[in-house]
Amino acid sequence: MANSTYTGRGETVVVIDSGWSPTWEAASRVVYQHDYADNDADARNPNADTHGALVTSTILSQAPDLGIIALKVMPDSATTASGAAIEQALQWVVAHASDYNIVGVNLSLAGGSASSEITTILSDELAGLAAKRVLVSAAAGNAGQNGTATDVSYFAADHNTICVSASGGDGTMPGWAQRNPGITDLCADGTDIRLTDLAGRTLMGNGSSFAAPAVTAAVALAQQEAVALRGSALTQDEFLSLAHQTGTPIAGTGYTDLNTQALLTKIGQLYGTTAPGTGAPATTSAAILVNAKGTAAAGVNAHFTLLIDGHAVGGATVGTAAKNYAFTATVSADSAHKVQVQYDNDGFAGGQDRNLLVNSVSVNGHSYAATDAAVTYDKGALDGRDVVKGQSGMWWSGTLVVAADKSLFGAHPAAQAQVAELQASDLLGHAVSANAASHGTADVTTAWMPETLPAFEDAAHGLHAWYDAHDLAHGVAA
C-alpha cells in the first residue's frame, strides 16, 4: 500500500506455483528458491510470463519490500503439479518458517471440487503453519457457472487456509468466481488486474489467482503492523475477524471484499498509538549501527541477522577488522524495543573456529556496549531461555539483545536526522529497481492466457493441481 507505513520490509512470503521470472521480479526480492518438480535449486521458469511470476508480481505490487520464497512445483513446460511436490514444498515451509520470518503462503492453484471443508494430504502441514501464525491464502477457483456453482478448489477448502473468492472490485462478484457460503472466507478484486513488468510491459490478469495474492499481501502488512504494535502476529481467526469488520459487504451475497487500508487502520487503532489527526499509528525511524568483527572458518566469515522485536530487518557478513554495519527500520513511536543481533552461522571447519564478536550496538545515536546493563545474551535459539548478561563473544550461536529505552524512539527529528546521516555517509546500501523509463520501452497491454490444460493424475496421493482457466479469450486464469 503506497500510503501505508508498512510495506512488508523484513518479512517473507512463499509462493508455491510455477516459478518466478526475472522479467517480473528483481532477483533481490527472491531470498530462497527451490524447484520440487525438477529437484534443483533454480525455481526460475523460462516462460517470462509464467503464472507464478504474475502471482508474485501481484503480491509485490501491494507489499513492495517483501522477501519472496519461490517454491516451484510444476515442470517448465506444464501447468500441472503433483500432490507430492506441493506437500514437499509445504513441509519445507513448516520447517523453515522462523528462519526466514515467513508470514504468509500463496496457493493460487486449482484442483478438485469441494462443497464443504475437507481434509487432504496437505492438512497436517497447513495445521502446522496455522499454529506458527503463518497464514495461507488459497484461490477458490474460476468455474463458477454464472454464480450457480457452490464448490471451491480442494486447496481452498481446508480449515487452515483462507479461501479467497474473486470479486469485481466494485461491489459485485463475476459469474465465473467460485464461492461457497460455508467455505469462502474473504473476497478480493480479481478482475482486470493490471501488472507491469520490469521492462514496462503491461498485462491484464483475471481470476482468483490474482485475488488470493491481494490477501497474501494484506496478511504480510497486517502481521508487520501487529508485531510492531502489540508484539505478536495475528492468528488466522484474528486476521479474518478484522478483515470482515473493515471489509466492504458485497451487496446481496453475504460475502465481504478485502479493504487493506481500512484493515491496517483498524489494527493501528486497536494496538497502537495514533498520529494526531490521522488515525494512523505513530511511527519513527530506527537507525541501528552494529560494530562487529569475526574470524572465518573454511573461508566463510561470520554472519549475523539484525532483528527488532523478533522481526528481521537485515543482515551482514563481517570481516576480521571491526567496522560499523548500518540498518534502518520503521517502528512504533514512544515505545521500548528490543534490538537483537543473531549470530546464525557459528561453526568449526578445517581446524578453524568461526566466531562473531560484537563490540557495541548504537540505536538512534545512543551506543550500548555489549556488556551494558541493558544488554543480555540468549544462548542458542532466541527463546528467552539460557539468558546471561551481555558479552562481546557470541560463543553459543545465540542472540545479543539490547533492551532499547522508549526515549530513543520518540516521533522527533533526531531519529530522522540519524538516518539521513547514515545515508549521506553511504553506510546504507539501497537496491536499484528497474523501471520503464530506464528501458525506454513502450507500454504494451496484452491479456495473459494460460495454456490449454492437460489431463493429470496422481493416484498415489489423490491430489493434483493446475491453473484453472474460465475464459481464455480474456486471459482469465486461477
Comma- or semicolon-separated keywords:
8 helices; disordered C terminus; six-stranded antiparallel beta sheet; 2 domains; alpha/beta; globular; 478 residues; Lipoxygenase-1; Rossmann fold; seven-stranded parallel beta sheet
Task: Provide structural commentary.
A hairpin with a 2-residue loop joins β14 (303-308) and β15 (311-317). Mean pLDDT is 83; it is low at 412-420, 426-462 and 469-478. A seven-stranded parallel β-sheet has the order 2-3-1-5-6-7-8, sandwiched between helices. It is an alpha/beta fold and 478 residues long. The protein folds into two domains: 12-272 and 449-477, Peptidase S8/S53 domain (Rossmann fold), CATH 3.40.50; 284-424, Lipoxygenase-1 (Sandwich), CATH 2.60.60. It starts with 11 loop residues before the first strand and ends with a strand. The protein contains eight helices and 27 strands.
Which regions contain 5 or more consecutive residues with pLDDT less than 50?
A: 412-420, 426-462, 469-478
What is the CATH topology descriptor of the largest domain? Rossmann fold
Shape: globular
Q: Major β-sheet, in short?
A: 7 strands, parallel
Q: Distance between termini? A: 23 Å
Name of the CATH class of the largest domain: Alpha Beta
Mean pLDDT: 83
Helix content: 10-25%
State the secondary-structure class.
Answer: alpha/beta
**CA radius of gyration:** 23 Å
Question: In what range is the share of β-strand residues?
Answer: 25-35%
